[in-house]
Amino acid sequence: MITEHAPDFAEALAEGGALLGLDLGTKTIGTATADAGWRFATNGTTIARGKWGRDRATLAALIAQRAIKGIVIGLPRNMDGSEGPRAQASRAYARNCAEAFALPVLLWDERWSTKSAEAAMIGQGTSRKKRAASIDSHAAAIILQGAIDRLAGGVL
Known about the structure:
The chain has helices spanning about 5-10, 50-65, 85-100, 115-125, 130-150, and strands at about 1-5, 20-25, 30-35, 40-50, 70-75, 105-110. The chain has a six-stranded mixed sheet with strand order 1-6-5-2-3-4, with helices on both faces. By secondary structure, it is of the alpha/beta class. It is globular, with a radius of gyration of 14 Å. It is built from five helices and six strands. The two termini are about 20 Å apart. The chain is about 45% helix and about 25% strand.
């Protein structure tokens, strides 16, 4: 199941469970996880993006290790809400994930996630080099936190 509607995703996960958030870049994939109670998202690792077979194996190991029950993927919309090639690529990746892992997938609007992550990291005094190495996983945590806030009844 792939949806952009948080209540449908929550219904598919009525029993709760840990969630995996993904920020898909052209060269890397930022990861984040949320606890089974959907209270907080924690940034994870940044994965070098490759062919789908390699990505699938890496994600499968993470899903098994963390007992993941659902996946939240950032959907990069344009500022006017329209979708371009990157959004279509994210939709295709979501289809691959849903098929490969048989888990529900929520596509979550990720506008400003990377900018928010960068601003937070600058505010914490993170060096430019360290920001470059972990910006995607921080962006994934922002995407995932927005989704779980909505799933928990927030107004986002």
